[in-house]
Amino acid sequence: MQQLISPLGTPYADPQSLEALAAVYAYPDQVNHGRAWLRANMVAGLDGAARLEGLSEGLSGDADKRIFGVLRALADVVLVGAETVRAEGYRPARARAEFAAARAAAGQAPAPAIAIVSRALRLDLTAPLFTEPLVRTVVVTTEDSPAEARRAVAEVADVVVAGERSVDLPAAVAALADRGWTRQLTEGGPRLLGQLTGAGLLDELCLSLAPLLTGGDAPRIVQGAEMADAQRMRLVSLIEQKGFLFTRYLRYPCPGDSAPTSR
Ligand SMILES: NC(=O)c1ccc[n+]([C@@H]2O[C@H](COP(=O)([O-])OP(=O)(O)OC[C@H]3O[C@@H](n4cnc5c(N)ncnc54)[C@H](OP(=O)(O)O)[C@@H]3O)[C@@H](O)[C@H]2O)c1
Questions:
Q1: Lowest mean pLDDT among 86-90, 207-211, 239-243
Q2: What distance in angstroms lies between residue 121's CA and the mean position of ligand 1's atoms?
Q3: What is the pLDDT of residues 151-205, one digit of tens each?
């Protein structure tokens, strides 16, 4: 595994080391001053598929899982669409001894919270995501979500209502930041990421490219929302292992270039 492109002014990292990966993927300093930063972590095949046989698992590999774990270990909250939770059987994020000291020093809980975006609220409330999280799971929903289901969800999770018929994603992201969760990570899926991107909320994309051609009609990592203008991105880090490419792109112009503001 080697790092081919390093963030400007930083030394090349040894990506085998968790400490070095944490430095490569460190959130910008603005997050310490109340500015929310939303990063996405996604994996795709070479012809753009965001899933294989219905799941992202088939596209992943050991190094991808390692970086996935580091990105979670740096985050305050993981924002995810309900279909990904259902399809992938999401579990709560776990605490990792290697990151415990850094998280405590940064004032973070031992693991990030999982925040699920859902209108239908068809969620398995007996799953560990609701019964065993280190940080109570959050469900972000709409005013018109089914009242009974919402009451049941509120028994086992924090409910945030943002938007009438569709979750207002800028309001949702702001509500998470208001909890002090400024290091935000979204793990998709493609429909949620499409809306986040379309709303101009995405600051950063960490895209793993798997050395696979899959064909078929799987969605791309960003699906659905039409964008008035293409979003330009700037490559800041590139790591290679066994043919996988692990890219880190920032929105361009970089939000960090302007004065920090809260959303
Ligand atoms: N390649 C990758 O990195 C990657 C990452 C994640 C997932 N995936 C794959 O992608 C697939 C799932 O992704 P997906 O794009 O179909 O779904 P998704 O984005 O995970 O979830 C869509 C669901 O989220 C809720 N939702 C999203 N936006 C909403 C809004 N504005 N207001 C209210 N609810 C909203 C709705 O849930 P309700 O139906 O509950 O209302 C909607 O059905 C799976 O196959 C998964 O394996 C791939």
A1: 239-243
A2: 13
A3: 999 999 999 999 999 999 999 999 999 999 999 999 999 999 999 999 999 999 9
Tally helices (H) and strands (E) across the chain: 8, 10
Domain layout of the chain by residue ranges: 3-251
CATH topology assigned to domain 3-251: Dihydrofolate Reductase, subunit A (3.40.430)
Can you tell me whether residue 158 is helix, strand or coil?
A: strand
Query: Sign (positive/negative) of CA torsion 261, 31, 143, 226?
Result: positive
pTM: 0.94
Packing angle between helix 97-105 and helix 62-74, nearest 10 degrees?
30
Ligand 1 pocket, CB under 6 A: 42-44, 50-51, 54-56, 81-84, 87-88, 117-120, 122, 142, 166-167, 169, 187-192, 195, 221, 223
Within 10 Å of residue 186's Cβ, how many Cβ atoms? Answer: 28
